[in-house]
Amino acid sequence: MPNQAVFILTDTQGTDVVGCYGRPEMKTPYIDKMAAEGIRFNRAYSTQPVCGPARSAIFTGLYPHSNGVLGNDMAPCLDAKTIGQRLSGLGVRTGYIGKWHLDGTDYFGNGVCPEGWDPDYWFDGRCYLDSLGSKEERDFSRLVPTAKDMRDNGYDETFTMAHRSVDKALEFIERYKDEDFFLVVSIDEPHHPFICPAEYLEAFEGFEYKIGPNGKDTLKDKPQSQKDWSNHVKSHLGDGEKLRMDAFFACNSYCDYEIGRINNAIDKWIPNALSIYTSDHGDMLGSHALLGKGPNMYEEIAKIPFIVRWNGHLPAGAVVDRPISHIDLVPTFLEFFDQDSPEILHGESLLKVFSNPTVCERERVFLEFNRFELDHDGFGAFSPTRCVTNRRYKLAINLSDKDELYDLETDPDELRNLIDDEVHAEVRDQLHGEIVEWMNRTRDPFRGPQWISRDWNGRAASSWGGPTRPRPADGFNRHTLLYDTAEPIDRLVYDKH
Question: Is 113 a catalytic residue?
Answer without folding.
Answer: no
